[in-house]
């Protein structure tokens, strides 16, 4: 089974998930939300086996939202600023 959480990070018992991943009851996990965000660099979540962690990006997106976000990013880039919606590899996503 694959465990996917796109809801609330606090609803998952991370210790139980880790145990289930390690003993094979859960084959893989995809986590878009975590109990604490951003997760600290030393958070055990980063070492969970067969786990993908995304940037808390799931949700309902309308065409208008995409247009507004794109325009804001474009404005920042053309003004020589870093867009607000930028991946921060140092923070883990």
UniProtKB/TrEMBL annotation:
InterPro entries given in the database record: D-isomer_DH_NAD-bd, NAD(P)-bd_dom_sf
Gene3D superfamilies with a match to the protein in the record: NAD(P)-binding Rossmann-like Domain
Which domain of life does the UniProt lineage start with? Answer: Bacteria
Keyword vocabulary terms for this entry: NAD, Oxidoreductase
Task: Give start and end of each D-isomer specific 2-hydroxyacid dehydrogenase NAD-binding domain.
Answer: 1-57
Q: Which GO terms describe its molecular function?
A: NAD binding; oxidoreductase activity
Query: Know the name of this protein?
Result: D-2-hydroxyacid dehydrogenase
Q: What lineage does UniProt assign to this protein's organism?
A: Bacteria, Bacillati, Actinomycetota, Actinomycetes, Kitasatosporales
């Amino acid at each position: 089974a694959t465990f996917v959480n796109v809801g609330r990070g606090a609803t998952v018992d991370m210790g139980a998930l880790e145990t289930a991943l390690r003993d094979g009851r859960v084959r893989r996990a995809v986590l878009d939300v975590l109990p604490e965000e951003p997760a600290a660099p030393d958070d055990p979540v980063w070492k969970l086996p067969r786990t993908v962690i995304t940037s808390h990006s799931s949700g309902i997106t309308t065409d208008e939202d995409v247009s507004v976000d794109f325009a804001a990013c474009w404005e920042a880039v053309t003004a020589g600023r870093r867009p607000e919606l930028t991946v921060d590899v140092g923070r883990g996503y």
